[in-house]
Structures are given as structure tokens and as C-alpha cells.
């Protein structure tokens, strides 16, 4: 034990080559110890440092990916909301367009019904007029003889002549 204590006490004493002991010269041993420690750390610690650096980079990339995911989710939500709004707007436009088309069809239907009613009324009037005319002609033909017929024609001619003089 005395050798160990002596080696700590005498700082300037170097042990001879071939013997083992403690070198207490701080200036001489620190660079050697530091280089050994650094060598061991570099050799064994490079995997740890690399994994720490990779882990830090992976965490940073993960945070960036999460931020991008949140951004994309917000954009998707915005597109979904806008899509629903556009769908609702298109639905309203389609309903309005259909309502206008139905209204036009209703107007066309009413116009067609009115036209058909007028056409039917005119046909009925023509038939009634023809029947009345035929009935009147039949009555006149059965009641009039040739002399009465000639007097009626003369009276009508005189009446038209009088009307012509009034208008001239």
C-alpha cells in the first residue's frame, strides 16, 4: 500500500517501463485518459448517438407529418363542408328549376285546355247554326210557295237597296 500512496505523493516520479502503477502527473495523464475515454465513447457510443440523432429526426418528421395530417384533415373537412354546401345549392337549383318547369307545363296544359274548349265551343256553335239554318230552310221550304218565295226575295232586295242608299 505504501507504493500506491507514494505514487500519489510524488507527482514528478514516473514509474519505470515494465512495472504497473498509477501515474499521478495530471498534465501527462489527462490527454491520454481523455483520448481513451473519447475513443471508447466514439466506438461504443456512435450507435447510441446515431440512434438519438435519428430518433430526434424521426420525432421532428413525425411532428411535421402530424401537422400536415391536421392541415389535410382541416382541408378535407373544408372540402366536405363546401361539398355539402354545393350539393345543397345544386339541390335547391334543381328544385327551383323543376318547379319552374312544372309551372310552365301547368300553363301549357291550361292554355291547351282553353284552346280545346274554345275549339269545341266553336264546333258546337257551327253545328247548332247549321241545324238551325237547315231547320229554318226546311220550315221556309215547307211554308213558302213560289209566289211567297218571290215576294220575300223582292222584299229583301228592296231592303238591301235601301241600306245601300243610306250608306252611300
From TrEMBL:
<dbReference type="Pfam" id="PF00430">
    <property type="entry name" value="ATP-synt_B"/>
</dbReference>
<keyword id="KW-0812">Transmembrane</keyword>
<keyword id="KW-1133">Transmembrane helix</keyword>
<keyword id="KW-0150">Chloroplast</keyword>
<dbReference type="GO" id="GO:0015078">
    <property type="term" value="F:proton transmembrane transporter activity"/>
</dbReference>
<feature type="coiled-coil region">
    <location>
        <begin position="55"/>
        <end position="82"/>
    </location>
</feature>
<comment type="similarity">
    <text>Belongs to the ATPase B chain family.</text>
</comment>
<keyword id="KW-0813">Transport</keyword>
<protein>
    <submittedName>
        <fullName>ATP synthase CF0 subunit I</fullName>
    </submittedName>
</protein>
<keyword id="KW-0472">Membrane</keyword>
<dbReference type="GO" id="GO:0015986">
    <property type="term" value="P:proton motive force-driven ATP synthesis"/>
</dbReference>
<keyword id="KW-0375">Hydrogen ion transport</keyword>
<keyword id="KW-0066">ATP synthesis</keyword>
<dbReference type="InterPro" id="IPR002146">
    <property type="entry name" value="ATP_synth_b/b'su_bac/chlpt"/>
</dbReference>
<keyword id="KW-0934">Plastid</keyword>
<dbReference type="GO" id="GO:0045259">
    <property type="term" value="C:proton-transporting ATP synthase complex"/>
</dbReference>
<keyword id="KW-0138">CF(0)</keyword>
<keyword id="KW-0406">Ion transport</keyword>
<comment type="function">
    <text>F(1)F(0) ATP synthase produces ATP from ADP in the presence of a proton or sodium gradient. F-type ATPases consist of two structural domains, F(1) containing the extramembraneous catalytic core and F(0) containing the membrane proton channel, linked together by a central stalk and a peripheral stalk. During catalysis, ATP synthesis in the catalytic domain of F(1) is coupled via a rotary mechanism of the central stalk subunits to proton translocation.</text>
</comment>
<keyword id="KW-0175">Coiled coil</keyword>
